[in-house]
Specification:
By secondary structure, this protein is an all-alpha fold. It has 2 domains: 137 residues, no CATH class; 67 residues, no CATH class. It contains 14 helices and no strands. The N and C termini lie close together (5 Å). The C terminus is likely disordered.
């Protein structure tokens, strides 16, 4: 689905690609029918906000929101397993899933990085993509609720993902609202320093990484393109895998 590729790009660290592709993004958002008209407007509003100002300002706002602590972390398993060793096995399993489906990872991001996961799902058929989102519905709702509470336009991305997965965003968010209301959010540098002081956990040994077969020559590859950007924007006009999957 093209819209998953759009949301993947919007949730990744802002680059010049967003500015250069804003017309294509707008076309893809307007064309999709897997989210409601209201949700299309909300996602488009995020595109407009990101591209209306200076790129460095967008990058600074992104880092302040997503890269300070775990509250808004874009790593799926961080919300499930924290720093436990169970997270390492979950990563190995997800990497194996990517490999089995011929999706090669050639970035430095962890496999549970949400924009990467969405890019993977954008290559899947629609039922598989919807099921993949449904599997993490609670986490999508949790992040959506937290972002709504902060008044962030990024909430539109997670609300759209909930809708694609077959859930009503308002209902899903309401189900986690009590949990979110009781959370204490601290994005101070002192709190960030405290996180860094926690004991580091090695999730995967080099042998485990090798066994996952990343970039394996034996598997049919859907190699991620354009290494110049963090999550590699593929021109819709040349993306055969996304044809008629909006």
């Amino acid at each position: 689905m093209k819209i998953l590729k759009v949301i993947s790009l919007l949730l990744d660290y802002p680059t010049q690609v967003i500015f250069d592709a804003k017309d294509e993004l707008a076309q893809a958002i307007a064309a999709t029918r897997v989210i409601s008209p209201e949700q299309r407007l909300a996602v488009q509003a995020l595109v407009d906000e990101l591209t209306a100002g200076d790129l460095m300002d967008a990058q600074e706002a992104y880092v302040k929101l997503f890269n300070r602590g775990r509250h808004f972390s874009l790593l799926l398993f961080e919300h499930v397993h924290g720093e436990s060793r169970d997270r390492g096995q979950a990563m190995v399993d997800l990497m194996a899933q990517y490999e089995n489906d011929g999706f090669a990872i050639d970035t430095k991001e962890l496999p549970d990085y949400i924009p990467l996961y969405l890019e993977y799902l954008s290559h899947c058929d629609e039922p598989t993509a919807r099921a993949g989102l449904a599997d993490v519905e609670h986490l999508l709702a949790l992040l959506a609720a937290r972002l709504v509470e902060q008044g962030s336009p990024y909430a539109a991305c997670f609300q759209a993902l909930l809708q694609i997965a077959g859930f009503e965003p308002e209902v899903a968010i309401a189900e986690v609202s009590e949990q979110v209301s009781q959370e204490v959010y601290d994005d101070s540098f002192e709190a960030l320093d405290a996180l860094w002081e926690e004991e580091a956990v090695t999730f995967m040994s080099s042998e485990q990484t090798d066994s996952c077969g990343i970039n394996s020559a034996n598997a049919p590859q859907k190699q991620r393109e354009d290494v110049a950007v963090p999550l590699h924007w593929v021109d819709f006009a040349h993306d055969a895998t996304a044809t008629n999957k909006v």
